[in-house]
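Intended use. Records such as the Endoglucanase entry shown here are meant for training and evaluating sequence-to-structure methods. They are not intended to support clinical decisions.
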Amino acid sequence: MPLPLSSPSFRVIIIFLSFFLLLSDGFSSPSPSLRSLHHRHRLDNHNYKDALTKSILFFEGQRSGKLPPNQRMTWRSNSGLSDGSALNVDLVGGYYDAGDNMKFGFPMAFTTTMLSWSLIEFGGLMNSELPNAKNAVRWATDFLLKATSHPDTIYVQVGDPNMDHACWERPEDMDTPRSVFKVDKNNPGSDIAGEIAAALAAASIVFRNCDPSYSNLLLQRAITVFEFADKYRGPYSAGLKPEVCPFYCSYSGYQDELLWGAAWLHKATNKPTYLSYIKDYGQNLGADESDNMFSWDNKHVGARILLSKEFLIQKVKTLEEYKEHADNFICSVIPGAPFSSSQYTPGGLLFKMGESNMQYVTSTSFLLLTYAKYLSSARTVAHCGGSVVTPARLRSIAKKQVDYLLGDNPLKMSYMVGYGPKYPRRIHHRGSSLPSVANHPTKIQCHDGFSMYNSQSPNPNVLLGAVVGGPDQNDQFPDERSDYQRSEPATYINAPLVGALAYLARSFV
């Protein structure tokens, strides 16, 4: 028998349902126009597991060095086997950062940190992909150990970027100078050293149970590298400006990496030394700055989210301000929230910058899901002014961003190569765009590859899982090889996406 609308019981039910909806969807819902846009561009449910597999496989296409027998991206071959010889050091291995044949240490270290964080938070959801994800981390950490093997010296780059970019050739053929660049106590690099310390510390947690001796090696190296970063302060691009700028210049300074490195060492060691460091120097290192962009260059937001867990879960009262700072970041990216400062395309994509914008989409999505995990564990919410933002709301926003990336967008195009029926075919990537050594054993000279670069033919080698820079602010994507701002993949775009996809693959089957 239906309840009368005026009955007390009915009113209680209405109040309960209203409260439930608030908790499940946060303080605000998309506007009708955004909601209709989302449904109009919606594809069938995504196969997040397939996307996860491919997002990890991508890293095998970026490998430098001698490839192992179980290499799955088989159109790649050995490359850079004499890297480091210019300074009589072994710097073979590691990753090419994007579509070129350079090994830039700054983005490689950030990639390693984010891959490790993905595993720390969501590795338990990866099932059969967990070993592949750990291999992706280890390929980087093996190189970072080599790069930091000499006291008070870090080898930060292999290759001459200007000469490398003047050629269009496979990594297997490259004949441009493999110059080696380093930082030391006379030419410091606190930013890149702080990021490498963070990467090694985070990776030590990944390998703690499955390979304790390797984990300990990573952690001890992280400690010494951080000491170097803190003792000899300065940005690495000050002494290496012609070599690293404008490619991976340290625009945000080095303070964020010192805070980030200390946060990861605190998490990896649980030693009071690092907690005291964060408490004493956090403000000087920019803990409460209002920047809301998380990337290979600026780590403030990531440090805030990471440290907020210590307050939320471990109840470390001295870190309470980081929960407030984390909330401020959350408020900045939520559409319609008080203090929201983020722009979105008409199709609903977070838009931060015209060049390689998808890196901000993947890193922000990861942070939203990670913070939602922390909030849920603490049975609490985020606050935007007087409004409440629930973990469910954060997950919903992150999912919509990943769904856009995978094809829920005005062009119905997946921006992950090899995922879905429509994806970029002419990505800005040397190895992918030129015939493989197996199919074309003859060397392709430096300038000979530009004939393929300038063609409209699809790339002959599919770089499975590669996520490109993405569409412009109007949701348009020309799929042109020369358009590196939108068509070039990068390791630091994929790394945080691995964690996001692991969560979605388990939660949205």
